[in-house]
Amino acid sequence: MFGSVLTNTVNSITIQQFALCFFTSILCGLLIAAAYRSAVNAKKDFLITIALIPAVVMNVIMLVNGNLGIGVAVAGSFSLVRFRSMPGKASDIAVIFLAMAAGLASGMGYVVYALIFTVGVLAAALILYRVPVLAENQNFRHVRITVSEDMDYVDAFKNVFERYAGTYHLETVKTVNLGAMYQLSYEVVLKNAGEEKQMIDELRIRNGNLPVICSMHAPAAQSL
């Protein structure tokens, strides 16, 4: 059932074998792209890239199969590639690896295995994506507070956080505006998410109405 359709050496791959592996890799790529689009609002160019990665990997695996010299040359070529895009999300990295794995299986001729593996992983991912137990804590917040440089910030917001948060922790302190101000970054778990506005209002009173940023996600520089 999981046998390879490439029963011959790489020098004698038939058109039928190549077509079967190629269309299997394309199908796996389309399934991955479609499933990712249903779960995440991804850009079109990224989805197209995901759909094509299995076919590209399949072709590379077919070419280097059994040829050490070509394998070393391809590895050297890929080592020259530099990715200059913005840091991606963990889910982006996961689907890229899934697409590469599907292309690897297709390139080695395990077309049935590639399809079953792709469908199985996608089904598991979609189920886990919707399982409430793995959902984000809706009461968790990243709070960034800007204060003047002459303010003693150590206990300035303690009473506010104790009133509205179950737990809170000061993560980082950094200077902004050429050292004229400090920016405090807290990790906070609210007692009641509906009281977020009241907490922000009280924080603004304490910091002299300077900027207060409250978000559910960490700043981009701290994300995977």
In short:
The chain has 224 residues and is α+β, with helices and mostly antiparallel strands. The protein contains 7 helices and 4 strands.
Protein described:
The protein is 50% helix and 16% strand. The chain is elongated and about 75 Å long. The relative contact order is 0.13. α1 (15-39) runs antiparallel to α2 (44-64) and α1 packs parallel to α5 (111-130). It starts with 14 loop residues before the first helix and ends in a 9-residue tail after the last strand. It has helices at 15-39, 44-64, 68-78, 90-107, 111-130, 158-164, 196-206, and strands spanning 140-148, 165-176, 181-190, 212-215. The chain has seven helices and four strands, in the order αααααβαββαβ. The mean pLDDT is 84. By secondary structure, the protein is an alpha+beta fold. It folds into two domains: 10-133, no CATH class; 140-217, 2-Layer Sandwich (Alpha-Beta Plaits). Strands 2-3-1-4 form a four-stranded antiparallel beta sheet.
